[in-house]
Amino acid sequence: MSTVKCLVWDLDNTLWQGVLLENDTLTLRPGVLEVLRQLDERGILHSVASRNDHEDAWERLEKLGVAEYFVLPQIGWGRKSDSVRTIAEQLNFAPGTIAFIDDQPTERAEVTHHLPDVRCYDAQEAAGLAELPEFSPVVTADARQRRTLYQQKFRREAARSEFTGPDEDFVRSLGMRMHIDRARAEDLARVEELTLRTSQMNATGVHYSNESLRALVDDPEHEVLVTTVEDRFGSHGAVGVVLLQRQPHKWRLKLLATSCRVVNFGIGTQLLRWLMDQAARAGVHLEADFRRTARNRIMEVAYRFAGFGSAPCECRGGDGPSESGEGVQRLHLVPQRQAAPRTLTTFGPTLWSADDSLGQWS
Question: Alpha-carbon distance 168 to 343, whole Å?
């Protein structure tokens, strides 16, 4: 069972006791405040799907001291399933990572009918949600600030909507800096989380445990690289991971995954181009593992667009890319030098010589 990424709350007789439109004295249900805090600290987002007047409901959330916990609240008079779908789409989350809690069986049934992958809970279960395994993800430093990261993301999007020039000019105006570093022991929990949570921008969908990642870090043949991004609005946090096996004549890209938060900025493509440039400097070929899943078609397009293909090569004994375990294809590329990106500045380690220094991609 995948972990929940966002919990969507009904308000009346669910988050609070009473009905707003009936002018009841509203108080939070017992245990709700603690659940809000615990899940927020674990990196699980909170949102709202409620039939109420938006201004009145939001004012009440502020008076109760919990408005800060909610992102993308959908408060109005439409169907709850439409509200939940909107939240999932704007967060770029799969429906199977969304949970919905409501006191009305008919509302839960309506959401289940239209969004069968969304997990629904009775309001009576609210106080115990934090004890359930689906609400117990790996907790990392990035997880603790995930709500802040998404709130910064929404501010970027608002700025983009006000920007009158081309997308490339807007991205350049952000002053983005991408840092690629060799993973340290304290980074591995976030790297593991990326292999678990990332679905669209994940080349294989294979989960790497903390233990297996630690073994790769200690293996001189392997590189475990973690990517962080920052701009004028703040940090995006750790948003990318590369697992690379280095051999004398070829490098095997076992995993490339980036967070959905940075899809619109092309971070996955720039990370791949940086790696291609490093391989070209080293004079080696590249192989890339790819396993098609229900959501990662965009990664296959990225690999194919970059030039990875199925042609045989002598670096593989003349064979074309093969199917390995669990349907993983090995795509092949003879890399060429890549121009540094125009929309961001990239800093990364030198993989193509004995020089272990960190430098700017140029």
Answer: 7
pTM of the model: 0.74
Residue 360's beta-bridge partner residues?
Answer: 347
Could you tell me where the beta strands, DSSP code E, fall in the chain?
Answer: 6-9, 16-17, 27-28, 45-51, 74-76, 98-102, 119-122, 176-182, 222-231, 234-246, 250-258, 285-290, 323-324, 328-333, 344-349, 358-360
DSSP character for 126? G
Pairing outcome for strands 98-102 and 344-349: unpaired
257 closest CA partner among 314, 231, 295: 295
**Mean pLDDT computed over 335-353:** 91
From CA 133, how far away is CA 123, in angstroms rounded? 18
Kindly report, residue by residue over 248-281, the tens digit of the pLDDT: 899 999 999 998 878 888 899 999 999 999 999 9
- Residue 148 CB partners (closer than 8 Å, separation 6+): 234
Per-residue model confidence (pLDDT) at position 225 = 96
Decide: residue 142, CB within 10 A, 0-12 exposed, 13-18 middle, 19+ buried: buried
- In this predicted structure, the answer to whether residue 90 has a pLDDT above a threshold of 80 is yes
For residue range 205-241, list pLDDT tens digits in order. Answer: 888 888 999 999 999 999 999 999 999 999 988 899 9
How far apart are the C-alpha atoms of 238 and 253, rounded to whole Å? 19
| C-beta separation of 71 from 154 below 8 A | yes
- Nearest partner of 219 among 245, 237, 201, 200, judged by Cα: 245
Directed axis angle between helix 267-282 and helix 297-306, to 10°? 40
- The pLDDT confidence band at residue 138, using thresholds 50, 70 and 90, is confident
Report CA 356 to chain centroid distance, whole Å. 29
DSSP readout, 169-220? HHHHHTTEEEEEEEPPGGGHHHHHHHHHH--TTBSS-----HHHHHHHHH-T
What is the reported pLDDT for 324? 54
Whats the size of the chain, residue-wise? 362
Torsion-angle region of 18 (φ positive above 0: left; ψ -120 to 50: alpha; else: beta): left
